[in-house]
Specification:
It is built from 18 helices and no strands. Helix 1 (6-27) packs parallel to helix 10 and helix 7 (132-168) packs antiparallel against helix 9. It is mainly α and 372 residues long. It has helices at residues 6-27, 34-57, 65-68, 74-90, 104-113, 123-126, 132-168, 174-177, 179-203, 212-232, 249-252, 260-277, 287-294, 298-308, 313-329, 339-345, 351-362, 366-371. The longest helix is centred in the middle third of the chain and has 37 residues, at 132-168. The protein has 3 domains: 6-232; 247-310, no CATH class; 317-372.
Length: 372
């Protein structure tokens, strides 16, 4: 083996063993959800793509020919991104039977490239196959189109989801907001932009040299980043199916069958629960947890918050947290405590969000409030 190819081949076991560890973790995860399984398959195919690309950039006699023929892996990233995102934001419990349609392009090109006519990748340039140029153009253009299409679909879902976060969660952490999936979408858009000159060069017979080590390090780095977020991602919604509804608050609840007397009762119980149990001290508090304690649905509790208290769940909970912080900042028993420790004990999860919320509600910073 050429010494220049050794660093590339050293990366392959890292990718393989890392992926095996991730799959084992997901399979034996205590509270396994459907998105974990979707993410697992996404990681497996991403790993195979990394291995195949490494072998392609550093060819050797040990590379299995059948494996080298499978080059359509880029066509799976978009569908997996969309299905994974949709499952999280809609709280889906099963795969749609129509989801197989999204993988037809990948299966089509994979089967085509397994035909004997495609003995090697030289068909792309030498025209030895009558339709080589046009077919490769079709394959080449399908990759950016697929990525762009599914990124747009995923970003639309994530935009709608971002509007629901204040209604269901008291903190905007990365697991609730799914901001990392937004980043993945923009990474894919970046890949599309960088691939355009590379694909154009191949079509006109100009090959742009790539460093195998750098290219594969980037690919495996992406695999590691993707696996990190898939492993740590929890179910966003746990009980009820979440419906998208962008209508104004007043119109949204016009058809609700919740009687005014029942609304008033839920409000009284909610305020009493907040006073006696102080659930806002829990940093990962969600509306579903409170709804369960009050024996009401999240939709009814959200209705009470929006119509009766004129607040979403995020604002409602964080107002209680700010009041608790204010009490402790003025309490001599907490005089030696750092402000941030008090904030964390009161349910805030980050310094930036705490300072922003405290300033918005009180009109002054925590430090100014303490020194007054």
């Amino acid at each position: 083996m050429d010494s220049g190819t050794q660093p590339v081949y050293l990366l392959l076991p890292l990718a393989a063993f890392h992926t095996l560890f991730c799959i084992a973790f997901l399979v034996f995860k205590k509270n396994r959800n459907l998105h974990d399984m979707i993410g697992g398959f996404w990681l497996i195919l991403t790993c195979l793509a990394c291995i195949r690309r490494a072998m392609h950039l550093s060819p050797g006699p040990m590379n299995p020919e059948w494996f080298m023929r499978i080059i359509a892996y880029p066509l799976i990233h978009g569908p997996f991104l969309y299905i994974y995102t949709r499952n999280l934001v809609h709280n889906e419990k099963k795969i749609h039977s129509t989801d197989a349609i999204h993988f037809i392009p990948f299966l089509f090109f994979t089967l085509i490239f397994l035909f004997p006519q495609f003995e090697s990748e030289k068909f792309r340039m030498d025209g030895s196959w009558p339709g080589a140029f046009h077919f490769y153009f079709l394959f080449g253009i399908s990759i950016p189109v697929s990525l762009a299409f599914y990124c747009v679909l995923s970003l639309r879902l994530l935009k709608k989801h971002s509007k629901l976060v204040p209604e269901y969660f008291s903190n905007r952490d990365i697991g609730n907001t799914l901001i990392w999936l937004n980043v993945i979408c923009w990474i894919y858009f970046g890949v599309i932009v960088t691939q355009i000159p590379l694909k154009a060069g191949v079509l006109i017979g100009i090959l742009i040299p790539l460093s195998p080590v750098i290219f594969n390090a980037l690919s495996i780095g992406y695999l590691y980043i993707l696996s990190f977020f898939i492993l740590r991602q929890k179910a966003v919604f746990t009980n009820e199916k979440i419906a998208e509804d962008e209508t104004p608050v007043q119109e949204k609840y016009q058809k609700s069958r919740l009687e005014q007397e029942r609304v008033h009762g839920i409000k009284i119980n909610l305020l009493e629960y907040m006073k006696t149990q102080r659930p806002y001290l829990k940093d990962d508090l969600g509306i579903q947890e409170i709804a369960t304690h009050l024996s009401v649905s999240t939709n009814h509790l959200s209705q009470v918050l929006n119509l009766e208290l004129k607040k979403n769940f995020y604002s409602f909970i964080n107002e209680y947290r700010v009041e608790e912080v204010k009490i402790r900042l003025l309490d001599p028993a907490y005089s030696e405590y750092p402000v941030m420790r008090i904030a964390l004990d009161c349910g805030f999860s980050s310094k930036s969000s705490f300072h922003a919320i405290f300033l918005k509600i009180t009109g002054q910073s925590p430090g100014d409030f303490k020194r007054r």
